[in-house]
Write a structure and sequence with these properties.
This protein is an alpha/beta fold. It has helices spanning 20-34, 71-79, 105-115, 144-165, and strands spanning 7-12, 38-43, 57-65, 68-69, 90-97, 125-131, 138-140. Strands 1, 2, 3, 4, 5, 6 and 7 form a seven-stranded mixed beta sheet that branches. The N and C termini lie close together (5 Å). The structure holds flavin mononucleotide. Residues 14-16, 18-22, 63-67, 95-97, 102-103, 129, 136, 138 line the site of flavin mononucleotide.
């Protein structure tokens, strides 16, 4: 197995009691692990210290709140200013309603990642939510979890290719 050669850090926010964005983050993390990539999946309020010093790829996800990324993720990304990330790969994901008027968390996340120096090769993952019957109840729309799994697999394959292209050899599986 090509285990643990590449390390991905997933930082996510989640706001509603139904933790939909967390579900996406955890699913993406599980897929990456299945592809042999070491992955830490961390709630934004818990991230810090060593975790931020030692990763090869950063994935950042948030729910869309008031047309943009949730406050927690914006604060996290703003807090990275001044650090040097040497064009490490990064990508954004979000949850949002499927509407022309929904706005989008990924746009702002991508803008901030770029201005921090990250390299964004992978298109962002947008996953759609719908209201449930309860108060502030949100659910993923059908098929969105599968979309997230495919995206994670694509991110994983892209990381493995970049690793090989950098001249480092991966052990044969
Ligand atoms: C106060 C509030 C504002 C919201 N604003 C938007 C919005 O502008 N666009 C959108 O697509 N969804 C919006 N939503 C829906 C959230 O995107 C949805 O609650 C979120 O995806 C659920 O993810 P979470 O469980 O990880 O918090 C809003 C939800 C709340 C509670």
């Amino acid at each position: 197995m090509r285990v643990n050669l590449i390390k991905t850090l997933i930082v996510y926010d989640t706001v509603s009691p139904f933790r939909v964005t967390e579900t996406i983050a955890v699913t993406v993390g599980q897929m990456l692990k299945e592809d042999g990539i070491k992955t830490d999946t961390i709630f934004v309020a818990d991230v810090g210290g060593e975790l931020l010093k030692n990763f090869d790829c950063l994935l950042v996800g948030a729910p869309t709140i008031a047309f943009r990324a949730s406050k927690g993720i914006i604060k996290f990304l703003d807090g990275l200013k001044g650090s040097s990330y040497g064009a490490k790969p990064a990508a954004a994901f979000d949850t949002q309603m499927q509407s022309r008027l929904s706005g989008s968390a990924v746009n702002g996340i991508e803008g901030k990642l770029r201005s921090l120096g990250f390299k964004l090769d992978t298109a962002p993952l947008v996953t759609y939510v719908k209201r449930g019957t309860g108060r502030n109840e949100w659910q993923l729309k059908e098929g969105e979890l599968e979309k997230a799994k495919k995206w994670a697999h694509d991110v994983g394959q892209s990381l493995l290719k970049q690793y090989e292209a950098s001249g480092k050899m991966l052990p044969k599986t």
